[in-house]
Amino acid sequence: METCRFTFDRDVPVLRDTDILVVGGGPAGLAAAVCAARRGKKVVLAERLMCLGGTATSGLVGPFMTCTDPDGTKMIIKGFYAELVNRLIAAGGAIDPMSIANGDAYSSWHSKGHRNVTPFNSEAFKTVAEEMCEEAGVDILYGVQSLDIKKNGSRMEGVFFLAKEGVVYIKAKQFIDCTGDGDVATLAGCPMFKGDGQTGEMQAAGLFFSIDGVDESKLLERRAAQGEMSMRFTPEIETAMAAGEYPIPRKRLGLYKSCDGTWRCNITRIPDVDGSTTEGQTAIMLTGRKQIMAIIKFLRKYVRGCENIRLVETATMPGIRETRRIHGDFVLREQSLIDGEVFPDTILVCSNSRDTHIGLGGIYIPSTTSYTLPYRILLPHGIDNLLAAGRNVSCDRPVLSAIRVMPPCFGLGEAAGNAAAIAIEQNCACADIDVKLLQQRLTSENACLEK
Ligand SMILES: Cc1cc2nc3c(=O)[nH]c(=O)nc-3n(C[C@H](O)[C@H](O)[C@H](O)COP(=O)(O)OP(=O)(O)OC[C@H]3O[C@@H](n4cnc5c(N)ncnc54)[C@H](O)[C@@H]3O)c2cc1C
Prior knowledge:
By secondary structure, the protein is an alpha/beta fold. It folds into two domains: 14-201 and 322-444, FAD/NAD(P)-binding domain (3-Layer(bba) Sandwich); 209-314, no CATH class. It is 29% helix and 20% strand. Strands 1, 2, 3, 4, 5, 6 and 17 form a seven-stranded mixed β-sheet that branches. A four-stranded antiparallel β-sheet has the order 9-10-8-11, with helices on one face. A two-stranded antiparallel ribbon has the order 7-12. A hairpin with a 2-residue loop joins strand 5 (155-163) and strand 6. The longest helix is centred in the middle third of the chain and has 25 residues, at 278-302. The termini are far apart. The structure holds flavin-adenine dinucleotide (FAD). Flavin-adenine dinucleotide is lined by residues 23-29, 46-49, 54-56, 61, 63-65, 145-146, 178-181, 183, 206, 266, 319-321, 390-391, 404-406, 409.
């Protein structure tokens, strides 16, 4: 690509001087910021959009995926996640995951790998997230996009943001990259994986939308008469494709009943885009919205029970499954998930399925065992005071395909927020913190660290 030199030789305002700077206010960033602030630290949460939640709100993605062991007998992702869910339930904005029957409409009728999902309302999420931040003393800044970083040797000193005023600078002692794409770690020069880690191929993206006016009784009749697989509506899709009425390169529907009378739709498919670029993100939005308009027509014409649906909204943020993630000194590999490995530095237990969306198809492997995630996957190489949490941690592609869903992202954020606080207290690199103390603190927050 042709380049043009950017020089910016002027002083910019130091907007904040803080203990911990969390960049990105999605599931991971929210949990990181609140949990760090509850440890008595000054925390700034910098988010480029105008609400918290990331994929959960602006991306309209839901439900929160599985939070239990593979049999659905025990909730294993707890801590901050359970607290948030309880607060959402109290606000009338979620349903208790332990009350969700396996294979019902809330899980899009999947009986394998989609146990105990949590349907939630995105507007309730926005409000509850801001309340939790306010109570903990988190300093939220909206409309700030990371632009560059300042570092001294192996320590970051601050992040420059593009803000309403122009360029601003935020100084901090510790940094947590929760941008989903590892934007901060990339700016800091940390080694990164992209996509499959070899060719750079990335999983297909999507754009969520929500509808109402579904006649659920008709869908239930079909489920009872024709079984779980029929809820993909593949024969109807094939008929519409043959008639030139279905320009989406995926032959299945994903209709998830939510808690507020709407249904979240995971149906669009946009392969071969790089969601970490401006052009890629634009392509997802443009193609996604075109696909949505075609899907609405298709649903009304071909799907019994959807004749009278109404489009409620389309996501305002692209649905990106995979871009960059840190390539730390330790990389979590698929075999550990298969074996249900227990790490000495466990920060989270989960059981989410491997679900890799490649091209037009994918590989879906429900877990048969719970597995643990080690603290080391939060540590980028080369920067002592930076952690990564959420979708951009150090792992191979199959692991990412499992732990990218929201419940693990909340859990990873909770661990990162606590770890950053400990690094300040112990005046050491993130890699050198007392991990036993981290585990004690997570346990005291009701996180589950044992299978
Ligand atoms: C099509 C699709 C379907 C999915 N289905 C489900 C599902 O059913 N259930 C489930 O639990 N999960 C699902 N997921 C996965 C899940 O939604 C995400 O992987 C998860 O939310 C990632 O959380 P995060 O906090 O790491 O990142 P995000 O949710 O992406 O949050 C990142 C935040 O950082 C902000 N940000 C990004 N860059 C910058 C920057 N440079 N400066 C400042 N702010 C920045 C963003 O605006 C955003 O708010 C799905 C994902 C996709 C794409």
